[in-house]
Amino acid sequence: MQLSKEDVLTQANSICKNTLMETLNIEFIDYGDDFVVAKMPVNSRVYQPDGVLHGGATVALAETTGSFAAHIFLDLKEVFVRGIEISANHIKSVKDGHVYAKATFVHKGRTTQLLEVKITDDNKNLISVCKLTTVAIPKPE
């Protein structure tokens, strides 16, 4: 039985309880054949001291979104997915509203996956561009 998009998103959001994703209020909102989208509110919980979005929170959003993309496109009965490298270029500051991460595959291999994650604000301004590499590790039999 194939789950509906709503069921997949509900399950993804429910497993984020008591994790960093819940702390940062990250919510998965969409996915398709080669992408995943999540959003995060921009408020004092994710600020750096001068009152703008912290780059580390942005990177946490990017890694969360990209890792989830790898999770839903691989057979998790067979493998664990782990991020092994992430880089980020921060382009613009944000003080309020939401930021949205859209992770798309550059390479979808059996062992390694490469994703580009673009972070935008409520007005679709580009905030950051991240590159995430994940690895699929076989589960012990």
TrEMBL record:
Domain Thioesterase positions: 51-126
Keyword annotations of the record: Hydrolase
GO CC terms in record: cytosol
Superkingdom: Bacteria
One of the record's GO molecular function terms: 1,4-dihydroxy-2-naphthoyl-CoA thioesterase activity
Signal peptide range in chain numbering: none
Pfam families named among the record's database cross-references: 4HBT
Family of the protein in this entry: Belongs to the thioesterase PaaI family.
The protein's name: PaaI family thioesterase
